[in-house]
Design goal:
Layout: H1 8-16, H2 20-36, H3 41-54, H4 60-70, H5 78-85, H6 89-98, H7 104-111, H8 116-123, H9 130-139, H10 142-150, H11 158-168, H12 172-180, H13 186-192, H14 198-207, H15 212-228, H16 237-249, H17 255-263, H18 267-278, H19 282-290, H20 295-304, H21 312-325, H22 334-349, H23 357-367
Helix pairs in contact: 2-3, 2-4, 4-6, 6-8, 7-9, 8-10, 9-11, 10-12, 11-13, 14-15, 16-18, 17-18, 21-22, 22-23
């Protein structure tokens, strides 16, 4: 046998000090060469015979080391694999999670046991097939399914997600794991959107490529939860700026959203949206909007923020109305203030073309 793998010095140490540390070091050394080196058929046979001895060692620490070293190997003999799989959890679980050559039949046998930790190890394996993912969704509990959802490499089909939602529609952890998964079918997003908190909805908007209408509706709902339902005097600039910043980074800070915000009397959101879109500081934006500047200064600001010219009249009307009524409504809730602005805007613009039919329908819904 290649002396680099197991030399006379190793044998002497093993004979004189057959303790856990020595055997573990030898197991690591042989395992490393078995994984990486080009061994002759005779050397492979000798290494595997050593493994057979070590996977039956009375010291579980030795068996843990040999399992950890063999989990990245290819085509181990079945008797060695079976010995590891039938061992205690600390030996078997890393091997279950990482040994690539386990067949679907092997994995289903593990899933059919009552050992939750071993089932989780199966759910955490790389590149799980859609068949195995479906088997897990149909036969395992929420803990195991949660690990499956969090496994980004697992192939989970729409049908499997539907099974999960049918079984665990009220399970907050399952829904949270779905939201944080990088890809979800649109039909599943539409199913869970009404059952999750606004914080999770914000993650849906920022993490997923949603259809335009669904994304717009979610952004509006999130914005209202964070801003419009908080009294104006207690609305935190930093809180609103953080929301705008997240929307900007996710390319969700659309002109349509900006116009709707100001038409709802949502001044702070509008201001910070212009800050990010125009790359001007907040003091400069506020100076232009509310320091009796000529209209052309505001127009220049909107152009710099890439707001379409077609919506300028709606924005100017909203700003005019806000200036007129903000003091009259100063003691009202922000929701009541927003309703007042919407009513005024609709009375001025609903017979013109400055707002789309969809925007008018949206604004009317805010009064109703």
């Amino acid at each position: 046998m290649n002396e680099d793998i197991l030399n006379r010095h190793d044998v002497a140490i093993l004979a004189n000090k057959p303790n856990v540390e020595t055997k573990s070091a030898i197991a690591s050394k042989i395992g490393s060469y078995y994984r990486k080196s080009k061994l002759s058929s005779q050397e492979i046979q000798i290494a595997e015979d050593i493994f057979r001895i070590m996977v039956r060692d009375t010291e579980f620490k030795v068996r843990e080391v040999i399992s950890n070293n063999l989990k990245d190997c290819k085509h181990l003999p079945k008797d060695i694999v079976d010995s590891i799989l039938n061992d205690i959890d600390s030996v078997a679980i890393p091997f279950i999670q990482y040994y690539e050559m386990l067949s679907d039949e092997d994995l289903i046998r593990i899933l059919n046991t009552t050992n939750i930790e071993r089932q989780k190890a199966v759910s955490q394996r790389k590149n799980l097939s859609s068949e195995l993912s479906n088997y897990i969704t149909e036969n395992c509990n929420d803990e195991v399914i949660g690990e499956l959802i969090s496994n980004e490499s697992a192939n989970i089909q729409e049908n499997s997600f539907n099974i999960i939602l049918d079984k665990y529609s009220d399970n907050d952890d399952i829904k949270k794991r779905m939201v944080f998964r990088s890809e979800l079918p649109v039909s599943i997003i539409e199913k869970i959107v009404g059952k999750i908190s606004y914080k999770l909805k914000s993650h849906l908007v920022l993490r997923h490529n949603l259809p335009k209408d669904l994304a717009s509706n979610l952004v509006e709902e999130i914005k209202e939860k964070i801003i419009l339902h908080i009294s104006e005097e207690h609305s935190s600039d930093s809180q609103i700026e953080e929301l705008v910043h997240q929307l900007y980074k996710a390319n969700r800070l659309t002109p349509n959203l900006v116009v709707r915000a100001i038409c709802l009397g949502d001044l702070k959101f509008f201001e910070y949206a212009l800050v990010y879109l125009s790359e001007l500081p907040i003091a400069e934006v506020r100076k232009i909007l509310f320091s009796n500047q000529a209209d052309f200064m505001i127009r220049n600001l909107l152009r710099k923020a890439f707001i379409p010219k077609s919506v300028f009249p709606a924005i100017f009307s909203a700003l005019k109305i806000i200036k007129e009524i903000r003091f009259d409504c100063g003691r009202s809730s922000s929701k009541a203030f927003g309703h007042k602005v919407v009513e005024r805007i609709l009375s001025l613009l609903q017979n013109n073309d400055e707002l789309t039919p969809e925007d008018i329908k949206y604004l009317v819904s805010k009064i109703n």
